[in-house]
Amino acid sequence: MALTPDATLGEAGEFGLISELVKIFEGDEHVLVGPGDDAAVLRIKHGHVVVSTDMVVEGRHFRRDWASASDVGHRAAAQNLSDINAMGGTARHLTIGLAAPADLPVAWALDFARGFAEECASVGATVVGGDLTRADQVVIAVTVLGQCTQAPVLRSGAQPGDVLALVGRQGWAAGGLAVLGRGFRSPRVLVEAYRRPETPYAAGKQAAEAGATSLIDISDGLVAEAGHLAEASGVAIDVRTDAFVIPEPLQAVGAALGADPMQFILGGGDDHALLATFPDAAVVPGGWQVVGDVREGEGVTVDGAAYDGPPGWTHF
Amino acid sequence: MALTPDATLGEAGEFGLISELVKIFEGDEHVLVGPGDDAAVLRIKHGHVVVSTDMVVEGRHFRRDWASASDVGHRAAAQNLSDINAMGGTARHLTIGLAAPADLPVAWALDFARGFAEECASVGATVVGGDLTRADQVVIAVTVLGQCTQAPVLRSGAQPGDVLALVGRQGWAAGGLAVLGRGFRSPRVLVEAYRRPETPYAAGKQAAEAGATSLIDISDGLVAEAGHLAEASGVAIDVRTDAFVIPEPLQAVGAALGADPMQFILGGGDDHALLATFPDAAVVPGGWQVVGDVREGEGVTVDGAAYDGPPGWTHF
């Protein structure tokens, strides 16, 4: 069937759309069987596989009027690729489940797939399978498989005396989301940061090779994720606000919205920056910024005091 | 937080529920890192990984008043495990994404997880990760990883002269669904077959070792799946209705609903029976039943004629 640009999923049918989607997702030499059979078959170079899964829900994680289909594809891929980054691994293969209403335009699904494939290509990963079904709202489920060439870096290895370090933009996506939530479209650089994160994909492996003792990606907020590190490691973490230079666009948004721009940095997620602990400031790799330290005890403090800002993203 | 039996997801929160869920999903010696970090880490015995993903949507694939949470868990797992079976592989590890309304009872989520874990345990597979988020309806996304000890059996290897063979109950789940759709709850054996399929998990590897030339699981209907084999292999397939003995419960339902019970067998999915082609009837393994043959040409015929019954499940 030839698909017209304004066809809906209901008109195209499952197999009509799938035949277009598989053209977007090209395999690589490690994909022995790609989309189209009951399962994909992958050649794994060596013995350890890193796997993670994440869902993206319309109205909850994105709005079709706030981000293009391609942007949603980039973000859905980035959010999953980032989980492999946060283990110090390299993402290789992904599956996508797309549940959508029958009136979803085929063009949206294809643009989503193109954005998704572009983001994956930026780290050399490919889509090897998927599922397509009907639901009342768009729900995207992604699973990513990766590999580590060294031991994966877990959340649980931080030690008192370690330093806390950050890599990547932090708070920009939260600033962009706040702008969109008030009905504005600028500063454009923040709106774009929300729509399509610039994920520090090389930094996870870099941290692992530099001897990071713990590692996590910031999807729910800096303080919230520092709390996950602290809890898993059985330590306390203190974040120092004077370590951050507040970027000009966040200062502008703070002034315009009457908000403290530091709240975007401490509470914001969605940039997929990485947070790690290192045994010594001297081994923190280039591009990373020391933003705190690890102590005996439990919980997270900001400048030595309890944090009373927004707690970060909650799913329910 | 202590969870009361009648708490909702909104009351329990993401982390309240996750802490209960991870108790249900126990790892095995191949799970180096299980749920709770950014990704799971798996030890893979040898070099090929088989991966598949499938979504299950409330109101589309199940109704909470037609099946218990545990049944939905069993079915969601079975549907994915069956895809590895249909490659001749053995399922090892799974991830689950659960998107659900905030008013979903925690008890439903936990019973679902228990049913899911039980079905996985029946083949020695374990849950290694997942995601939990909010959506307007329950959407379950499962990804399964498996391995093959021999070459995977694809859809594309059928040759003219091969025989078509089936293993497992076929049409029972469709009969059960028809009964429920009319507001009845019996014959109970069919309703149970719809709620919790009896999947022939050992038969995929058995077919591969016996030299099957193509293999698929029946989730969308026997004729529809035979059509997928025919298309992928570039052959024609004829199904013979006299090969089937119609089971008594399907005869009873046909009589009660005024339907031809053969339609449940030819058009029904959801039993996750397997359909395979073998080069010769003499090599068809025990438990399999020859139900047709492979010819030159294209498409599927039933008793040599075009099939005009229900086409099987369509997703849009």
From TrEMBL, chains A, B:
<keyword id="KW-0418">Kinase</keyword>
<feature type="binding site">
    <location>
        <position position="83"/>
    </location>
    <ligand>
        <name>Mg(2+) 3</name>
    </ligand>
</feature>
<dbReference type="InterPro" id="IPR006283">
    <property type="entry name" value="ThiL-like"/>
</dbReference>
<feature type="binding site">
    <location>
        <position position="54"/>
    </location>
    <ligand>
        <name>Mg(2+) 1</name>
    </ligand>
</feature>
<keyword id="KW-0808">Transferase</keyword>
<feature type="binding site">
    <location>
        <position position="52"/>
    </location>
    <ligand>
        <name>Mg(2+) 4</name>
    </ligand>
</feature>
<dbReference type="GO" id="GO:0016301">
    <property type="term" value="F:kinase activity"/>
</dbReference>
<feature type="binding site">
    <location>
        <position position="61"/>
    </location>
    <ligand>
        <name>substrate</name>
    </ligand>
</feature>
<feature type="binding site">
    <location>
        <position position="54"/>
    </location>
    <ligand>
        <name>Mg(2+) 2</name>
    </ligand>
</feature>
<feature type="binding site">
    <location>
        <position position="38"/>
    </location>
    <ligand>
        <name>Mg(2+) 3</name>
    </ligand>
</feature>
<keyword id="KW-0460">Magnesium</keyword>
<dbReference type="InterPro" id="IPR010918">
    <property type="entry name" value="PurM-like_C_dom"/>
</dbReference>
<feature type="binding site">
    <location>
        <begin position="130"/>
        <end position="131"/>
    </location>
    <ligand>
        <name>ATP</name>
    </ligand>
</feature>
<keyword id="KW-0784">Thiamine biosynthesis</keyword>
<feature type="binding site">
    <location>
        <position position="83"/>
    </location>
    <ligand>
        <name>Mg(2+) 4</name>
    </ligand>
</feature>
<dbReference type="InterPro" id="IPR036676">
    <property type="entry name" value="PurM-like_C_sf"/>
</dbReference>
<feature type="binding site">
    <location>
        <position position="38"/>
    </location>
    <ligand>
        <name>Mg(2+) 4</name>
    </ligand>
</feature>
<dbReference type="Pfam" id="PF00586">
    <property type="entry name" value="AIRS"/>
</dbReference>
<feature type="binding site">
    <location>
        <position position="53"/>
    </location>
    <ligand>
        <name>Mg(2+) 1</name>
    </ligand>
</feature>
<comment type="similarity">
    <text>Belongs to the thiamine-monophosphate kinase family.</text>
</comment>
<protein>
    <recommendedName>
        <fullName>Thiamine-monophosphate kinase</fullName>
        <ecNumber>2.7.4.16</ecNumber>
    </recommendedName>
</protein>
<feature type="binding site">
    <location>
        <position position="219"/>
    </location>
    <ligand>
        <name>ATP</name>
    </ligand>
</feature>
<feature type="binding site">
    <location>
        <position position="313"/>
    </location>
    <ligand>
        <name>substrate</name>
    </ligand>
</feature>
<feature type="domain" description="PurM-like N-terminal">
    <location>
        <begin position="36"/>
        <end position="147"/>
    </location>
</feature>
<keyword id="KW-0067">ATP-binding</keyword>
<feature type="binding site">
    <location>
        <position position="270"/>
    </location>
    <ligand>
        <name>substrate</name>
    </ligand>
</feature>
<comment type="function">
    <text>Catalyzes the ATP-dependent phosphorylation of thiamine-monophosphate (TMP) to form thiamine-pyrophosphate (TPP), the active form of vitamin B1.</text>
</comment>
<dbReference type="InterPro" id="IPR036921">
    <property type="entry name" value="PurM-like_N_sf"/>
</dbReference>
<feature type="binding site">
    <location>
        <position position="131"/>
    </location>
    <ligand>
        <name>Mg(2+) 1</name>
    </ligand>
</feature>
<feature type="binding site">
    <location>
        <position position="83"/>
    </location>
    <ligand>
        <name>Mg(2+) 2</name>
    </ligand>
</feature>
<dbReference type="InterPro" id="IPR016188">
    <property type="entry name" value="PurM-like_N"/>
</dbReference>
<dbReference type="Pfam" id="PF02769">
    <property type="entry name" value="AIRS_C"/>
</dbReference>
<keyword id="KW-0479">Metal-binding</keyword>
<feature type="domain" description="PurM-like C-terminal">
    <location>
        <begin position="159"/>
        <end position="259"/>
    </location>
</feature>
<feature type="binding site">
    <location>
        <position position="220"/>
    </location>
    <ligand>
        <name>Mg(2+) 5</name>
    </ligand>
</feature>
<keyword id="KW-0547">Nucleotide-binding</keyword>
<feature type="binding site">
    <location>
        <position position="217"/>
    </location>
    <ligand>
        <name>Mg(2+) 3</name>
    </ligand>
</feature>
<comment type="pathway">
    <text>Cofactor biosynthesis; thiamine diphosphate biosynthesis; thiamine diphosphate from thiamine phosphate: step 1/1.</text>
</comment>
<feature type="binding site">
    <location>
        <position position="155"/>
    </location>
    <ligand>
        <name>ATP</name>
    </ligand>
</feature>
